[in-house]
Fold each of these.
Amino acid sequence: MSFPEAVRWSADGRAVDVLDQTQLPERELRLQLTTADAVADAIRRLVVRGAPAIGIAAAMGLALDAAAHTSLNAHDFMARLDESMRNLRNTRPTAVNLFWALERMSGVARAHELAHAPPEIACKLYGEATRILEEDRAMCRAIGEHGLPLIPEHARVLTHCNAGALATGGMGTALAPVYLAHAAGRDLKVYADETRPLLQGSRLTVWELQRAGIDVTLIPDVVAGSLMKKGEIDMVIVGADRIAANGDVANKIGTYPLAVLARHHGIPFYVAAPSSTIDRSTPTGEQILIEERDADEVRRGFGVLTAPADAQVYSPAFDVTPAELITAIITDRGVMKPPFTEV
């Protein structure tokens, strides 16, 4: 089974090795990020994207930052870690995995700050970041295995944005069942929304599925409803950046209208995400902070002016799909169905 590695340690273990997703599909360029600041910048610029991959990269960047400052005294060392964590937290406010991973790293540092010197704490942080990466790989496969029975033979699957290997440390979330179904020899077809305005569907999802030999067709976002009306879609699978305690799901902008269309046409609508994406401290989707992107991503996407240069723009990065529109949530722990009283 072939899928790209979005984030990993460099061969010498001294850098976070990431696939620059802003360059796809034109070229495959891997970057070596050696500081937490470099990782934060990569997350902001969407060089690294996808909730699980963001969390992994942030943890790894923090570990590198700790290793670079072991000569500081204990107080200054912890202050430096706190500063780096604040910077990383401020990169993408909606992706809960970012905060989850940094809390894990902070917990390790705080648990050892009194009994261990900075070099020992740095070593433990490196080990924790590595565990987060390895756990994510296992998580992806578990999601795939739980979701596989939901994909029938000859399934026609619609997905939005990119929730594949490029968004995680493994084979992805929404695409994990697709990868396993393909590996099992099932005949299936994937339709990928282009995903305006940054085209993660066309640039990333289509690229990685073609690379894996999976039958995929790119469609403009506005075509999905017509395909459903024609009976060409059997199921929708999307990822998630945050899942509220009641089952409301924040995902890439454009997900909510797909859920409405799926309900109207009687098509199952599945969300696939790691259990770490479930934010039990957020009661409903109403409390989820939605990131807004720079207006020029719409006015002059990829450098070409496609609107008046001073046009007013509203460009949220995510929308919230109410739990009542979701058929099931596929996690590494199993498939959860409504009512999502124990999400």
Amino acid sequence: MTRTLFGTDGIRGLANVEPMTAESALRVGMAAGKIFTRGNHRHRVVIGKDTRLSGYMLEPAMAAGFTAMGMDVIMVGPMPTPAVAMLTRSLRADIGVMISASHNLYQDNGIKLFGPDGYKLSDDTEAEIERLMGANLSDALAGSPELGRAKRLDDAEGRYVEFVKNTFPKGLRLDGLKVVVDCAHGAAYKVAPSALWELGAEVVTIGVEPTGFNINEQCGSTHTELMQEAVRKHGADLGIALDGDADRVMVADEHGALLDGDQLMAMVGEAWMKSDRLKGGGIVATVMSNLGLEIYLRENGLKLIRTQVGDRYVVETMRREGFNVGGEQSGHIILNDYNTTGDGLIAALEVLSVLVQSGKPASTVGRMFTPLPQLLKNVRFKGNSPLQENGVLSAVRDAETRLGSTGRLLIRKSGTEPLIRVMAEGQDEALIEDVINNIVDAIERAAA
């Protein structure tokens, strides 16, 4: 079965426009409820959300869908995506739901689903949910006495904060460290500062005043300038920028210079290797990760396994091949010794633990390798993807010829937005920029 609603990270779109309407959310809840109603026990679902306005519309709609199928609903309010994954397991729920559009602005929203094991659903299960959304489910509705109930979990924040703190090495503290944390006015605006402060850090906060309209607005992991400037202004030891649902993180050293996901994976991977904790003999990353990371790992006797873009595919490979460190250049860092999905706060604490144990600044321990020049440009389009147009194919062939064996070219359609992502890397920065611009021009002409 093929999927049309689900992309690389759940369902996503403009709020109150299909498929991000109350009606569709209701149908998702009913369809998922039918699939995950298994056995005779009292079934339950955990629903979390970020801080965007449309969450007030989608949350009760999904709750109605699940209760109609006889499932009890536990609503945890604004909480990070990884917290929902954790609580799904902790509360022995049959399914977990996160209502979020991640790093997108407030106008968008999305639905991410987790199985009872806390992992994102497989492509096949998502396809089956799509099929059932268009089916007549009246025969599957719960009888009046079996309808589900909905309630709020008042201590969800505290549960997650304690869970996160317990991943920090025993006996270590953040006393004496000043940390800037940008929560993007999103789901972690309470839990991230609390966890850092309770571990001993002096915390400077940004993006902790959500209005329903300002999530990810010129802040967070996709707009790190505020965080970088705050690090320099306050003389902080580290800067942390989370995205709207806090499943990804970008870090800045004490000079405000960025450390992306590739550097963070290398940093954690090496630390875990030295402490004999690294599994699989390397890390798992996507085709977007810099070639410099692959060279660095190889030189240190480690391997890099690449997957298609999407943290779910990284997780699937990690589980199948026995790795415990993986992620994406964009800041999804998966440490599956701790959690089943990317967790920006846990990844940040892992970086801080390396700083504390080394006694060295982030600029020293976090700059693991010199990245090869890499350029990424996004091209927005309407209608069908223009990638198969003759002009685009010709530009791609020309670029591959010019790059030869010294570079790498990757062109793909985004799984969450109507964008074509064009990336190239290699040793010749001028050549990379030229071939990227030629391809972008060809795509724009084809899409016009």
